[in-house]
Amino acid sequence: MPQTILIVDDEKRLVSLVESYLTQEGYRVATAYNGKEALVVAQKEKPDLIILDIMMPEMNGYDFMRIHRTEHDTPIIMLTAKVEDDDKIIGLELGADDYVVKPFKPRELMARVRNVLRRAGKSEPAGKTLKVADIVLDHDSREVLVGERSVDLTPSEFDLLAAIMASPGRVFSRLDLLDVIQGVRYEGYERTIDTHIKNLRAKVEDDPRNPRHIETVYGVGYRLSKG
Amino acid sequence: MPQTILIVDDEKRLVSLVESYLTQEGYRVATAYNGKEALVVAQKEKPDLIILDIMMPEMNGYDFMRIHRTEHDTPIIMLTAKVEDDDKIIGLELGADDYVVKPFKPRELMARVRNVLRRAGKSEPAGKTLKVADIVLDHDSREVLVGERSVDLTPSEFDLLAAIMASPGRVFSRLDLLDVIQGVRYEGYERTIDTHIKNLRAKVEDDPRNPRHIETVYGVGYRLSKG
DNA sequence: GAAAATCTACATAATTTCTTCACACACCAA
DNA sequence: TTGGTGTGTGAAGAAATTATGTAGATTTTC
């Protein structure tokens, strides 16, 4: 029985991104776009963890948390819009278990999720080690093996590889991949991904000019070969 | 049969941290998040020691202790939120065997736990000796050997090393490590860890500039090499 | 209490990584 | 084949992260 995580945020794009990440890691996901809706969903789904934005229409995160906490003690990770120390302190005092400042990188949030759930004594979903063809990627140690050889990746390279390894064969657009390494934001140069892919290929492929693992899908994006 | 320790505190994050420490030291752990719940759990688990927060919703620590003590004489360590001498005195008068002021460092609490249990005539669990590559760390004597050479570590350095030796290869974030040496708190400078790591490397590594044991994982944290 | 040891914070230097850009080349459709 | 796009690549500056030395604060020791 997978653990359920409730995401509450009015930015749909952000909710989708986080949802896909959590799903990939084996969690069940519920969503809500404001505090009011969240109360209903939380009541019904009984999530093991709630990821909660503070700034929301209808009912903000603080209000939701205050009401929710009267009856439940679900761990909560707060999403704060700016780097205001006040927010952090208020949030933590209200009972949040952790907070992440927007914009955040997906891996940052995922790390907090694992942390909070571990602290709350819940077991983690299995499968922290990904294996596709002769590539092995381990999240705990952040190590990557290609065949027998250990390769040293930068944070962005690791995150990109982890993302495409989570769904071998699926084509990722450059925008998808940009979200992976820069988080959801409104600017950013798509072609930056090309460079990361180039560097990644140089480390992961035997013959970078004829990549066997990381394939280009002309006009669309990149894909990890299942073979 | 390991001894059982009951932790009672409404701060889940704190409970989890303490739990992980106690577990690592070989104790069995039970938890409760308020006095009312604690009464039930204590009845069922019959702990050898209770770690008890004073400020809690539903039923506070004093009330729990008063009721519990009518039928049991389990040793109790109190957690007091502030440095108010009144609290300490009242607590001790009510029958607490010791108290720790929040925020506390994990090793501080562990020391008290051992102390109280020893006074209560219970034997301690055997301390574990960790060995990774050519580093040997002994919990009982708090001694560390690197190859043939005995190295002298400060308390923080010892705790850090013990933490990463418990999970070789796993990457620890600076925040993880800050919990280890400063306990649960909401402020604290992550970069302080860098300094401890530097000092630790100076003592543990043959060539501190090219560390073989304590590796840096750029953008994430530190890791103990399995090799 | 005073001295010593340790911890924390911070400034600065050293590294590493990220992003952007220009240009060459590859792909596809007409 | 032949443009018009899309992609691969190398280089360089910008940005982010880590290493290190030092000083003051705190804690421990005697």
Describe the structure.
- The structure is a homodimer of 227-residue chains.
- By secondary structure, chain A is α/β, with parallel strands linked by helices.
- Chain A has 2 domains: 4-119, Rossmann fold (3-Layer(aba) Sandwich); 129-224, Arc Repressor Mutant, subunit A (Orthogonal Bundle).
- The first copy, chain A, has 8 helices and 12 strands.
- Chain A has helices at residues 12-24, 35-45, 61-69, 85-94, 106-119, 155-166, 174-182, 192-204; strands spanning 4-8, 28-32, 49-53, 76-80, 98-101, 129-132, 135-138, 143-146, 149-151, 171-173, 214-217, 221-224.
- Chain A has a 5-stranded parallel sheet, sandwiched between helices.
- In chain A, helix 2 runs parallel beside helix 3 and helix 6 crosses helix 8 (192-204).
- The longest helix of chain A is centred in the middle third of the chain and has 14 residues, at 106-119.
- Chain A is elongated, with a radius of gyration of 19 Å.
- The two termini of chain A are 30 Å apart.
- The interface between A and B is medium-sized, with 20 and 20 residues.
- The structure holds a DNA duplex (30 and 30 nucleotides).
